[in-house]
């Protein structure tokens, strides 16, 4: 391996780890942090390529923000780059939740002032990301209309299939309206993954989904049952981390694997740590089988996301440069802006801006990020300290 390649991989690990340590606020906020770091600061990919990658990951089941991070890692450093991007972004919260499970299960943290401060940080970061994406992806009245439709439908019909339906419908509208659009070509987003390897990943995804439950029935292995439960959870969830939490509750509390009190303690911990909410699996695994159980659960719930991203990226890269698909992508990207604005209102705004001082603090943090150009980690630290002082 050349020195340049090693340096590139090390940079991927360091940047993703910093994001894993500072990205509070849930999946939509993560996309804001990624946009700020990878698009605005590092310029590893352009606005349109980032929006296309987000659009793909909205289609796939699993943790959308983690899948976007994996895709950027693969684009930057190949398969190993994707693995390092995943480890950097996921490991901090997984380790933190395993420690919570082992040491701090009884600690009431969800009402802590510094956590409220971090929620307000998410308001500033997501607002900044939406402003940048809206300017680029909704430049005219038709795209603004699609975004408005997506925003309205997402808020009024909050079901598991609404988001996928909105994206499909927006793609169809975009294909009709923008099929002759002469807009500039999307940026070059190369994924060094062969079609053969991608097909193997998709085959493994469906193979595990079908055969793990069968193998579980013929064996009495606790570890296989644990792996199967988390793998299915990661394979069949649309809508990101907030959706997987109640699904995991139905999977593990009624079966007696952990008590309702233990689940609620972990739920509070999951809201308090940065990184993907899917790492809540690490907490459940650690409660049931110690730190090894936490590691197995983390691998199992994220494995479907990894296989799906690696299995679809090469084909997506071909499709996104097809002239017939570009119009659909214009519609999808406009819809993503609307979906992000809807998520910005609920749950980010509604759970964070509760009184005038919250709005004032959010305005200060937004100004620090947008006008004073301070790095995101400074905003995060300021938010946590401000939360301790004011709340």
Helical run tally: 15
Rg calculated over all Cα atoms: 20 Å
Oligomerization state: single chain
- Report the end-to-end length measured between terminal Cα atoms: 51 Å
List keywords for this structure.
globular; mainly alpha; 15 helices; 391 residues
Provide structural commentary:
- By secondary structure, the chain is mainly α.
- Helix 5 (113-137) packs antiparallel against helix 13 (323-352).
- The protein is built from 15 helices and no strands.
- It has one domain (1-180, 192-391).
- The relative contact order is 0.19.
- It is found in: Cell membrane.
- Keywords: Cell membrane, Membrane, Transmembrane, Transmembrane helix.
- The chain crosses the membrane at residues 79-102, 114-134, 146-177, 197-215, 264-284, 291-316, 328-348, 360-390.
Topology, please?
Elements: H1 3-22, H2 27-41, H3 47-59, H4 64-103, H5 113-137, H6 141-156, H7 162-177, H8 195-218, H9 222-235, H10 241-252, H11 260-272, H12 280-320, H13 323-352, H14 356-370, H15 376-390
Helix pairs in contact: 1-4, 2-4, 2-5, 3-4, 3-13, 4-12, 5-13, 5-14, 5-15, 6-7, 6-13, 7-13, 8-9, 8-12, 9-10, 9-12, 11-12, 14-15
Outline:
The chain is mostly helical and 391 residues long. The chain has 15 helices and no strands.
């Amino acid at each position: 391996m050349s020195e340049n390649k090693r340096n590139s991989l090390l940079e991927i690990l360091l940047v993703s780890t910093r994001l894993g340590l500072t990205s509070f606020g849930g999946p939509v906020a993560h996309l804001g942090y990624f946009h700020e770091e990878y698009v605005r600061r590092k310029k590893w990919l352009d606005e349109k390529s980032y929006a296309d990658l987000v659009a793909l990951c909205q289609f796939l089941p699993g943790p959308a923000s983690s899948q976007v991070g994996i895709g950027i890692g693969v684009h930057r450093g190949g398969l190993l780059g994707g693995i390092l991007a995943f480890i950097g972004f996921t490991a901090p919260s997984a380790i933190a939740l395993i420690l919570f499970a082992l040491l701090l299960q009884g600690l009431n943290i969800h009402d802590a002032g510094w956590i409220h401060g971090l929620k307000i940080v998410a308001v500033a970061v997501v607002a900044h990301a939406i402003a940048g994406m809206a300017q680029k992806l909704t430049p005219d009245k038709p795209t603004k209309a699609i975004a408005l439709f997506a925003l309205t439908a997402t808020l009024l019909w909050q079901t598991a299939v609404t988001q996928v339906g909105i994206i499909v419908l927006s793609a169809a509208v975009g294909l009709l309206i923008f099929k002759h659009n002469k807009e500039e070509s999307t940026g070059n987003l190369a994924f060094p993954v062969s079609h053969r390897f991608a097909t193997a990943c998709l085959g493994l995804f469906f193979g595990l989904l079908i055969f793990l439950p069968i193998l579980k029935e013929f064996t009495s292995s606790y570890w296989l049952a644990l792996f199967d439960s988390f793998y299915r959870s990661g394979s069949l969830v649309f809508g990101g981390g907030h959706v997987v939490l109640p699904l995991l509750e139905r999977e593990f509390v009624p079966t007696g694997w952990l008590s309702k009190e233990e689940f609620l303690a972990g739920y509070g911990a999951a809201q308090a740590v940065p990184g993907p909410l899917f790492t809540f699996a690490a907490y459940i695994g650690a409660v049931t089988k110690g730190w090894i159980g936490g590691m197995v659960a983390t691998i199992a719930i994220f494995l479907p996301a990894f296989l799906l991203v690696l299995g679809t990226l090469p084909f997506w890269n071909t499709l996104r440069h097809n002239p017939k698909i570009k119009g659909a992508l214009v519609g999808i990207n406009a819809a993503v802006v609307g979906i992000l604005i809807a998520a910005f209102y609920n749950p980010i705004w509604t759970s964070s801006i509760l009184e005038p001082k919250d709005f004032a603090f959010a305005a200060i943090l937004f100004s620090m990020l947008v006008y004073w150009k301070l790095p995101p980690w400074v905003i995060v630290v300021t938010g946590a300290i401000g939360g301790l002082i004011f709340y």
